[in-house]
Amino acid sequence: MDRPAIQLAVEDLHLSFGGVNALMGVGFDVRQGEIFSIIGPNGAGKTSMLNCISGRYHPQKGKISFEGQEITSKPPAARAQIGISRTFQNIALFKGMTVLDNMLIGRHIHLKSGFLKGGIYLGPCQREEIEHRAFVEDIIDFLEIEHIRKKVVGTLAYGLQKRVELARALALDPKLILLDEPMAGMNLEETEDMVRYVLDINQEWGVTVILVEHDMGVVMDISDRVVVLDFGQKIGEGTPEEVQKDPAVIRAYLGDEESVFLGR
Amino acid sequence: MSVNYCGDFKQSYKDDMRVMQTPFIRICIFSFIVFLYAFPFLASTYVVSTVNVIGIAVIGALGINIVTGFTGQISLGQGAFLGVGAFACSYFMREWGIPFWVAMPMAGVFTAAVGMVFGIPSLRLKGLYLAIATLAAQFILEYLFLHMDMFTGGSNGVYFPSPEAGPVVFDTDQSMYYLIITVAIMAVVFATNLFRSKDGRAFVAVRDHYLSAEIMGIHLFRYRLLSFAVSSFYVGIAGSLWGAYTQYITPEHFTIHESINYLAMIIIGGLGSVLGSIYGAVFMTLLPQVLTVITSWAAHVLPSVGDLIMSIKEGIFGLIVILFLVFEPDGMAHRWSLIKAYWKLYPFSY
Ligand SMILES: Nc1ncnc2c1ncn2[C@@H]1O[C@H](COP(=O)(O)OP(=O)(O)OP(=O)(O)O)[C@@H](O)[C@H]1O
Ligand SMILES: [Mg+2]
Question: CA B184 to CA B62: how far, in whole Å?
């Protein structure tokens, strides 16, 4: 069977903050269309890795390429432009804006009317706004947030904010989406919904997913491949079955309450 | 047969995206505009002149709200930027013989350029540090107004030629009224549209969470500077109109006092709100005038206490502003939206 092409290649990434080494020589390949999970204990460097990929952190050493193009030193906005989008571990929405406006920011890179056309509005700008509103409404339908589309985001419950953040990331129409603990703090029902959304995004929309998640049940269920980080180092990589059997991984989780989930 | 929809039920995205959502609001606003244009026939010259000052303040308040309220970058250079617009416009007209209609937008563009230069610190500084940097802009520009005599007339100031359109000269309160109101309406419409399209939304995103704005593809440098530019353009236009209205401009009018006055306007009216800019401009222009009327009336009726009240007028002004900030910290625009929401649901309070 033909394996899909490598979409994102991370090579030998080093990142440190003063004396703290967040990442030490981590590398992996993410293939087109897969759900690729990054797991590891607290402080392992998972969020730091996502921050390097989305451009918020700049690694001291190493290389990141997306679709064959090196992006290591590109600013975050340029990475959005080529189709990388993400959500955050701590919700990072535009709190004073409505759900719709948050999502329309996701369309920013696709919109053409600048401030002159925008200020006049009638004509090309209005046509464009209507067109992109329709795009955003499809995502609203998909994520079942019709009832809150005009609500100011800061007033919404935590679970809904998480969903809106996913909606905003999707509005960018990404090729690769990075999800940092999308199920954290959610109840069982909300988690199940979120799992369904992630699977749909991946299978129906064809978006490659990099997932950081502590819920091992979810990770082992839906991932195509998993990489395991511990103290900034890669200690395992493979299919969920391979990773679960890996002695180094089991050792890293030993004594950690998460070892319970790992065997599930 | 006609169908009656229950509640707000929109048939298309276009309808749903309207600024004026119901026919009732549309009628209200159009009647208000008609009323505005008939106003000079109904009111005394004194009242018209007050509305002129309000109209200019609306444009200036929109300007500072764009950079401070919508983009979250405190600017204390507003007063000086007004001066840049006024002196530039006057210079273009006096020295180059350019008609006001061209000189005003040119002055706007010139002020935008100056605003962008002084906005460069915003690429590195935020919050109070940026406020101090814009304060420096205020003092540098004030210094230049006083010392670049050939452009500004130094401390004596310089005259401002009246705008002309064929036989009509705009040198009375009534004629200036039409000019100011027309530009103010255009300024309000433009700002309203700006904030329901790409670049305006990007400003707000930069304000609310600049890191995730960047992750969503917004170039922070570009939008921080653009916000200073668009804001300063508005302020330059306001300055030009001020010059045309007063016919003589001196550096005295463009001090830090003016900057703070405008900042107070948008805080009281509503940060990040187009309507709030209007409310704030009206409030801050009318309040001192109302106080003057009351105190002089009091001085007339009660000569003994009246003098005292007269002398603490400024204090009363300050007190009212402070009380406003304490009890209405989100501004008048916010209160207004609460009142609207209340009446929409009346008599059900949930
Ligand atoms: N901006 C920063 N400044 C200093 N240290 C940082 C910074 N970001 C991360 N670190 C450090 O890097 C290490 C890895 O942090 P990171 O947030 O990537 O962990 P994580 O795997 O996402 O953990 P968690 O599961 O708790 O989210 C930690 O020791 C953390 O303290
Ligand atoms: Mg993390």
Answer: 10
